[in-house]
Write a structure and sequence with these properties.
Chain lengths: ~400, ~400
């Protein structure tokens, strides 16, 4: 079905050059590539496979996607009522408005194509301060637009999809950035803690939808700003490139067993977006926080995963299936099992985010635990976390009761 | 050019019935209608007139609108540099994405037509609690989506545009709501205090753009939620109806000399949006806060207005020009002078918001002043406000310096 000779942004030589150029920073970010590494092709993403790969697609996966388009079937079961689905879908509605507007052209913006912003790059360029000062300023502007975390990395085509897909027929489509784009501004968007506590439920999906909707807005504003300054800018949510290596390179956190970037500020309870630009910026550096070393000793997420989609052993470069990024020694989920569970629920699942010991607040106890968990008293932190027990699910009915009583946010 | 027999949502008899039905609540809200009252026609709105009325339209007004579409001419003068315009336009970009998407059909959403949300009303309706409980819940949901203030009023066609305009040729277009819509959820969106302090400047316009962009997102989400529950919902920004009488009826604040609703929480530093629905709700009631009585004795805004567009005397029902709402005894601005000044600046002006003594924070002194200003020690509050002096403009360069230093928000 697919050409042997796939489109790609990188030939062997360029890939080798990038491996060489970023050797040190890969290591600092905990990214370990093997000679088998090759850039990911978006059509192998589990969500994209659900549209063309009969081993993934089923009546259930079709119903999963349809449920976001208001054909939800409320059912018995706390957290899956009509109100829960209505809130989840409403939360997504801004993101959906952006992703649907060019669907007829085969570009599902923010997912299978960059966000198109109807603002031309200004003919004149502003006078620039030095890259360091511009970097500080652009981060504050992103914060003004609502980003919770902002950091900068150099553009690195190894993390870019070799090709994206045209969503009309799921055929490969060109995924090149404009010429001369050098940096990526990586933004983190914190998710609502109370809603995340209700995973798994349709209600909990509102925490995801709210952030995608915020992302779409913030990315649109940041792209518009950069173009107004006279520079190229390409806005991106899940499209264009893998965000995890970029978030690691930008120093926003460390990669965890639950397949998420664990940040000091929000643990795993954060989503990421990115804006590519040719504004001269200064890249941040990866940070060694000690978070990932805790994951070496902890498998709370893997044990809590109903379909057993998360790995319980050490990192490995053995691919689980075609949705695994090849040639990276890391914890890799079984995306087929994971998404199969989502489809059976008719909503996204992030139990692995809820139960992660790094999913905490900012109380004194939370901060003390973080200090222990990321330092040489890691075993004491393990003991404390075990004693506290795995974070329980907040019952969706209790979330609604809290809402009505005004006891949230 | 316009038919004598204009389209209208209200005949004489229905208008009389509404005047009768809402007599008490009009009075409580400080709304004083005279027999000359008739619903406003959107084509007489100053922004709409700028497209068809040669007494308003000019090269300057065309350049004003064009400046929001990235053809801004940065110029010398603090607050009007390319960065200032870029930030202002970026702030607007989400609102613009919504308002431009159906422009080809003559519907500039959020301004000359309701926001179109691509979600059907659910076939099944959720089981409802009583209207009071549903009202509490829907307010909390609006807050979850990001609204800063939420209140409810009954639908009252007196405040609805007799007709809206088709933006292709500025001809009258039907402005009817779906059958059976009974209530309006009025939301307030606070503006950034520091940015407002920089009025007048292109930079300051970012405070307006950021809120319109937030409004568009929040309204979209609330409409989607109500439809998911199985009820009609129409999302509205500046389109469809005047929001000021609705905000007064919903008890969000009192009408001030500067043509704004002055709220206890944010003074005049707030914008409003609205969602019309047939979900059975309980309307809030107007509140007598004592704010408007302060305006009787204060003309700081009128004195600070460069084009002298604000009234310095008592409320009157004498229309200033065709853009005045007829038959309401109130403070009415000269919208032609006001917008003429905007056009000359190439950006919106809200000096009257910045200098209003009710534009304050929530420090102890601020709250003490508010208590005095709205009680029987009003004269003491006047004296204090005079002594403190009119709030100075924050220089845009200083705003940028604060931003770079991380001293804001």
């Amino acid at each position: 079905m697919w050409p042997d000779n796939e489109p790609s942004l990188l030939d062997r030589e360029s890939l080798d050059a990038l491996n060489e150029r970023f050797r040190e920073s890969d290591r600092a970010a905990g990214i370990e590539l093997t000679p088998a590494f090759r850039p990911f092709t978006q059509r192998n993403d589990i969500f994209t496979r659900a549209f063309w790969d009969d081993t993934v697609r089923s009546a259930k996966t079709d119903a999963f996607f349809a449920s976001y388009r208001s054909q939800f079937d409320a059912r018995k079961g706390d957290g899956f009522s009509q109100r829960d689905f209505a809130l989840r879908n409403a939360s997504w509605s801004v993101s959906s408005a952006f992703s649907e507007r060019c669907a007829e052209d085969g570009r599902r913006e923010g997912f299978q194509a960059p966000l198109d912003v109807d603002v031309a790059v200004s003919d004149t360029r502003v006078e620039l301060a030095d890259p360091q000062a511009e970097s500080v300023e652009i981060k504050r502007i992103a914060t003004l637009f609502g980003a919770d975390l902002v950091s900068i990395a150099e553009v690195d085509l190894r993390w870019h999809y070799a090709s994206r897909v045209d969503t009309r027929d799921m055929s490969p489509a060109d995924n090149a950035l404009p010429e001369g784009v050098t940096h990526v501004i990586v933004m983190g968007h914190a998710m609502d803690a109370d809603l995340v506590e209700t995973y798994p439920s349709a209600l909990a999906g509102a925490s995801t939808g709210l952030e995608y909707s915020r992302e779409a807005a913030i990315v649109t504003q940041l792209v518009s700003y950069l173009r107004g300054l006279g520079f190229e800018a390409v806005g991106s949510m899940n499209d264009t490139a893998l965000v995890i290596p970029y978030a690691l390179k930008a120093g926003l956190g460390e990669y965890g067993r639950n397949q998420m970037v664990l940040t000091p500020e929000f643990g795993p309870r954060v989503r990421f977006s990115k804006v590519f630009t040719n504004l001269p910026l200064q890249a941040d550096t990866p940070r060694s926080l000690g978070i990932r070393a805790y994951c070496d000793t902890c498998d709370v997420c893997a044990r809590a995963c109903p379909p057993k989609a998360l790995p319980d052993g050490p990192p490995t470069d053995v691919p689980v299936n075609v949705s695994t990024l090849r040639g990276v020694k890391k914890w890799s989920a079984n995306a087929e099992k994971c998404f199969g569970y989502w489809a059976s629920l008719k909503t996204d699942c992030a139990i692995c985010m809820r139960v992660c010991p790094f999913n905490r607040g900012q109380t004194l106890a939370d901060r003390l635990w973080f200090a222990l968990a990321t330092g040489r008293f890691r075993r004491l932190a393990r003991w404390w976390a075990d004693r506290r027990g795995v974070a329980k699910r907040l019952k969706p009915v209790d979330w609604w009761a809290r809402l009505r009583a005004g006891r949230r946010g």
